[in-house]
Amino acid sequence: MDVTTCRLDGPADFFSIGQFVSGPGWRHARRVIDTFELVFVRRGVLPMRVGERELTIGANQLALLPTGVEHAGSRAITEPLDFYWMHFRLPEGSSDMHVGDADDAVKLPQSGDSLILPHWCRAADPDRLAVMCGQLIDLYARFGPHANTYCDYFLTCLLLEVTAQTRVLVAGMTESAADRDGRGADAAGAAKRYVMGVDTGGGVGGFRPDGHTVRIGGANVAVEGHRPVGLGPMLSVRSWIMANAFDDITVAKVAERFHYSPSYLTTVYKRAFGIGVNDQIVECRVDRARELLSSTPSPVADIAREVGYDDPKYFMRVFKRRTGLTPGQYRDAFPTRLYNTV
Predict the structure, then answer these.
(1) 339 assigned to some structural domain
(2) Buried/exposed code over 306-330 (b: 16+ C-beta within 10 A; e: otherwise)
(3) In a domain, 258, yes or no
(4) Spatial contact of 111 and 5, defined as CB atoms under 8 Å apart
(5) The domain that contains 45 carries what CATH number?
(6) 83 near 41, Cβ under 8 Å?
(7) Residues 6 or more apart from 34 whose CB is under 8 A from it?
(8) pTM, whole model, 2 decimals?
(9) Is-cis flag, bond preceding 145, omega within 30?
(10) Considering its fold, how many domains does the chain have in total?
(11) The dihedral sign for the CA sequence 5, 6, 7, 12
C-alpha cells in the first residue's frame, strides 16, 4: 500500500469539499491542480487515470490524487455514482512511502501528530468517514467559501480519521506478514482483495504520483482451508457486511459466506466488536439511511428500498427504534446541503 505521510505542525489547509452525484454517461474532466484531492466513493465506480496509472475507485474506497499530476476520467461511467471530494494542502514536509510488510510498517510515523494518507485503498470504516464528510460539507456551507480555521481543523480531524483507519489496515497486513509465505499464493491474494475491497485474482496495484504501478502486501483474513484466529478475520467479515448490507443478507448468509456456523460467527463477532452480526447489518443500513435523509431529497420509501428494506413501514419502525426519531423528523433536523449533480 502506498501512502503519503507528513507531520502536523498545524492544521491542514482546507480549500473546498462537495458531494457529487451523477447518472450514467458522466466523465471526470481532465485537469492538473495544485492541491491534493481526496476522493471517497459511496456508490458506483469512478474510473480515473492518474498520471499514467489507470485507477478504478469502487464503493467505499478512497483515493488520494496528488498535486501537479494530471488526472482525468478514463471513461464515462455506466451506473449511478455518488462520491465525496475535498481539496486541501498538507503542511510542508510530506513524503511518499510504500508499506508492504512488517519491516516497512515500522517505518510509519508512530506519533499522534502525523498523517498517513493511502493513495488507494478500501476504508476500514466507511460509514464513519461518510458522517464526517457530511459534517464538513455543512460547515463549509455555513462558513465558506472563504478560508477559515474551523474548516481547517475539521478537515484535519477527518484526515486523522483516515490515518487511524489506515493504521488498522496496515496492522492487518503486518499481522500476517510472518506466515504469509507459508500459507501460499491463495492467502496472499485474499489479503490483497481484503485491503482493497475488490475481487481480483491477479493482485491489486496502487499508484505513485509519477504514475508507476505498485503492489500492496497481505492482510490477516479468513482463507478457505485455514482456521482463522484473531481480529483479522472478523475485520474481513465486517468489511464484507458493510459492502453488502443493503442486499438481501442475513446472519445465516454471512456465516455461510465465511464458512462458520451462525451461532459461532455471532459469538466471535460480538467478542471482537461488541455488536452482533444482525445488529451490524441494521446499523449499516440505518447509518446509510441517515446519510441519504440529510443529503438527498429522495422519498422515504425510496431510501428504505435503497438500504435494503422492501417494506417502508418496517424500515420506519427500525429507524425510530435506532435513532429515537422518525425518518421525517430526522430529515427536518438537518439544514439543506449543497451538492452538485449532473
Answers:
(1) no
(2) bbbbeebeebbebbeebbeeebeeb
(3) no
(4) no
(5) 2.60.120.280
(6) yes
(7) 67, 68
(8) 0.59
(9) yes
(10) 1
(11) negative
Query: Strands 71-73 and 46-50, how do they pair?
Result: antiparallel
| Grid cell locating 273 | 466488536
Residue 228 counted as domain residue: no
Query: Residues 277, 279, 282, CA angle at the centre, nearest 5°?
Result: 115
Helix or strand run (H / E) with residue 120:
strand 120-122
Q: Tens digit of pLDDT per residue, the chain (342 long)? A: 889 988 888 899 999 999 999 999 999 999 999 999 999 999 999 999 999 999 999 999 999 999 999 999 999 999 999 999 999 999 876 666 666 554 555 577 777 788 999 999 999 888 889 989 999 998 888 887 777 899 999 999 999 999 988 888 877 665 545 444 444 445 445 444 444 554 333 333 333 333 333 333 333 333 333 343 356 688 889 889 988 999 999 999 999 998 889 999 988 888 877 889 999 999 999 999 998 998 888 999 999 999 999 999 999 999 999 888 999 988 887 655 545 555
Neighbours of 199 (CB within 10 A): 9
How is residue 323 written as a grid cell?
A: 435513532
DSSP 58-119: -TTEEEEEPTTS-EEESS--SS-EEEEEEEEEPPTT-EEEE--SHHHHTTS--STTEEEEES
Q: Is 36 helix (H, G, I), strand (E, B) or coil?
A: strand
Let me know if residue 289 belongs to a domain.
Answer: no
Look at residue 177 and give its three-state secondary structure: helix
Task: Give the position of cell 491542514.
Answer: 12
Residues 6+ apart with CB under 8 A from 25: 76, 77
**Domain of residue 123, residue span:** 2-179
